[in-house]
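go over this:
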Amino acid sequence: MTTNNKKKLGLKDKYRYLTRDLDWEPSYQKKEDIFPFEQFEGIKITDWDKWEDPFRLTMDAYWKYQAEKEKKLYAILDAFAQNNGQQSISDARYVNALKLFISGISPCEYGAYQGFARVGRHFSGSGARVACQMQAIDELRHVQTQVHAMSHYNKHFDGLHDFSHMHDRVWYLSVPKSFFDDARAAGPFEFLTAISFSFEYVLTNLLFVPFMSGAAYNGDMATVTFGFSAQSDEARHMTLGLEVIKFILEQHEDNLPIVQGWIDKWFWRGNRLLSLVGMMMDYMLPNKVMSWAEAWEVYFEQAGGALFKDLARYGIRPPKYVEQCPEAKQHITHQIWAALYQYSQATNFHTWMPSDEEMDWLSAKYPETFDKYYRARFTFWREQQEKGERFYNNTLPQLCQVCQIPAIFTEPGDPTRLSHRSHVHEGERYHFCSDGCCDIFKNEPEKYVQAWMPTHQIYQGNCGGADIESVVRDYYNINIGEDNFEYLGSRDHRRWQEWKGEKPAADELPKAG
């Protein structure tokens, strides 16, 4: 009779066997030839074994956990669809926030998946490779669950079709697209600083919490469910982000100025990108959660402030131009909404002017700015719409060469004057919305002179037509008058009124002209 004296492996040993012990030292190829991108950014790594993996997750455990979440998620999505959950939301205006999400954020999740899959290949440390592999799979899962959750809305509302096609072409979607293209075109360490740290750790709560809370407040249980399903993944991503930055800083003192420069750059790029999320919070949600100013205070000023105090021991200071944000948070959402309102003939969603009740809410949340600078303008535009003279801007705006947002923001300290910077590089003048974007360009002009600027391309005739209507219809693949323009009287609005048994709005849709 024989007995099996082999002990069951502990979690620590199992993790080591399935990750670190799969690594090997190359024998017939040079390490720098196998991992050519690990050194060109100037980052110095002295010991990859110092990389810590707080979750110590192996692939078999990963699939088990994710499979359980998938079962619960799709059961709820099926129930939502079978019970016509789209009729339980607060108002059809809310769906425009989903249009922004599916065309502006979900494709970026796919870009993040591609980025992590690529950079994971270029680290010689096995711990970093495993972490990037896990996050790559997470990001791919997120885009899939988001598409499935919103596919039900696509059956009933306009503007959700061809979201990936629109992401690559529609002018305002070049803002999120350029952010992730910029990160993916960087080296592996800068990519991790940009996405894992600056975006996932410092700024991700400002993205996902408003969207998921907004969904909950407006009766959208499908979106809430995929948000909860992704939350445990986001916890890993944030932990990876903090580990990345601390690991790099602890490896060599020469890494500090490089990392500080990346934090400055990617904070500013993320801050500009999130202005779209702030606009959604303040204007697109019928049932509002909190203002953008309040969210910025909670999730950046308080949480981010504590983070940078902690990182001060490594020599890291708060990002450059962060001192402009307390003032900017009082203005940017109103400025973004004003821009998208007058250019909604070229977007995949509807816009409208807020009601008196909503303006009162904005006034209470922004007591020092809304009434003084924005209420009169919005009231006038609403009166024009009611007279059948809805305002559309038929000229194309000047875009910032870096963040690609139209130059609509105002000068720090003077909300009555537009902020504009320019810089001449190799005989050609480039334009920017701020000192932050101008500095980013000056540091890497060779990268940003290649930016695909939508308004420039339209004027050059590279977008399928000489007039805006042809571009929107043929190049963007947007159904004119159904996917865009004024919400009141739109097909989304009329369908919602039919569900609710209300008197239908006028059939004639307002047109630009």
Residues 58 and 265 are 34 Å apart (CA to CA). Confidence is low (pLDDT under 50) at residues 507-513. Residues 48-160+167-500 form a domain with the Ribonucleotide Reductase, subunit A fold (CATH 1.10.620.20). The chain has one domain: 48-160+167-500.
